[in-house]
Amino acid sequence: xxxxxxxxxxxxxxxxxxxxxxxxTKVGEVARIRSGDHWTLxxxxxxxxxxxxxxEGEELFDKQQYAEAAxxxxxxxxxxxxxTIAHLLYGDVxxxxxxxxxxxxxxxxxxxxxxxxxxxxxxxxxxxxxRLDRADEARAAVVSALSYNPVYENLYKVLDTDPATFGLRPxxxxxxxxxxxxxxxxxxxxxxxxxxxxxxxxxxxxxKAVLRNEPAARQEVLGDVREVEASFEEERTCVAAYIDGxxxxxxxxxxxxxxxxxxxxxxxxxxxxxxxRHLLDVLDAGLFDGYVxxxxxxxxxxxxxPMYPEELHQExxxxxxxxxxxxx
Length: 328
Description:
Elements (H helix, E strand, L loop, with lengths): L6 E3 L21 E5 L2 E5 L7 H13 L3 H14 L4 H15 L2 H14 L4 H13 L3 H14 L4 H9 L29 E3 L8 H12 L1 H8 L9 H26 L7 H7 L2 H11 L3 H13 L9 H15 L4
Parallel strand pairs: 1-4
Antiparallel strand pairs: 2-3
Helix pairs in contact: 1-2, 2-3, 3-4, 4-5, 5-6, 6-14, 8-9, 8-10, 10-11, 10-13, 13-14
């Protein structure tokens, strides 16, 4: 590869690392809104009189004056039947005030009929469904909540501390966390590449360095020469490089220990780092894109999750159901 750039493989992190991409828009600000038989993305508008009713309702709810709070929430729904917050809060009146879990679930369902990507509505639904002994539906709702909001802190707290609440095993995560400083910004002299203490991340860092700094390579690999912070395709490519690099490194180590005798793919797999073994399992299951979308793009830019194409979103749900929130 012809390049005008100089690269430096350093034993320590780059002092001026690239900025990892993040998204400032909060999950929930963009909704999947039903328009006839179709869904569109947008920011839901609120009725101008709803804010006062919402404030009054929340104050009454906090005082456990549920009937009075319900009056405010019903009025919000009368003003705008598509107000998802009103349906959620009205459902909470049934859930906490009346202990009528079927009625609560029905209101949460109405919120989802309006906003199909509302992770809060899925979480609330899961709580109501468990109390109705509909555990499989509750688990599916948890999966949907995480698929639309991969950084759902309150839900993770429940899954971390008491997964049995939803009839689940202890939650498993396989995070993709390259070391900070794995790639430096161009400084006019060279571009630093750092593979971590044991070089586990070297091929990932090299891949990112090339795709970020070599337009011709980016065009060849991704079909895109635009200067961007990152993309799903870039991450997908570089995670694959991470896997291949670690398999090759592990194989070389095993063959050296065996006196240069060939070793089996099975032995290489068993000796590879835990994350590599997980990614190989994911590849075998045909859920590699789901992993990248959930554990990488979804963690760094969660607002992207509701915007995934439907086929990719379904793969994210399958990944979460198979590896993250698993039925007991």
